[in-house]
Amino acid sequence: MMVTVHPCFHWIGYHISTGLLQEGIEVVGIDPIVDERSDLLYMYVGRNSNFQHFFRKEEKENHVQQTDDEVMIEFVEDCILIKRNDRDKELVKLPPLYGEWMNFERLGIRDKDSLQQWVEDHEAVYIEDFLKELFPIVLRDEGFYWTATEQGESVLKERLEEIWRCQRLLV
Length: 171
Prior knowledge:
Layout: E1 2-6, H1 11-22, E2 26-30, H2 36-45, E3 51-54, H3 57-63, E4 71-76, E5 79-84, E6 88-93, E7 97-98, H4 104-107, H5 112-122, E8 125-126, H6 127-140, H7 153-169
Parallel strand pairs: 1-2, 1-4, 2-3, 7-8
Antiparallel strand pairs: 4-5, 5-6
């Protein structure tokens, strides 16, 4: 099985890519390397032998033959579009998500406390928890329905600390 992720260096696309790679799935990432963040994220996945990177869809189409079991995952606005062989398409509306490498500036988040407040106000879901539910469904070609799970205060604090550690790498 091969999964194409576009854009692979958007923070959600990055988590999708790394999660699939950890499952042993071949990943084709499409995204230009345009800033420090995408360059850093490329360094994390670029050495994995199951990862191929292309700057544009056309490059991928010219170099990689599509297979019957290929899945395309595209991040569009606040949704993920899942396509299987151009015949089956499913649009998954994302709940508010938080995690490592997200763009805090866009949300006006300046520190861990404002991040925690944003997570609590929006009842945001940690990206890895969301993907644990999404991956088995994507890989088995089933429909997707998200149900929220509770996270304890200590788990939230631990996650926020790790997220902020990643953010400091970009400053």
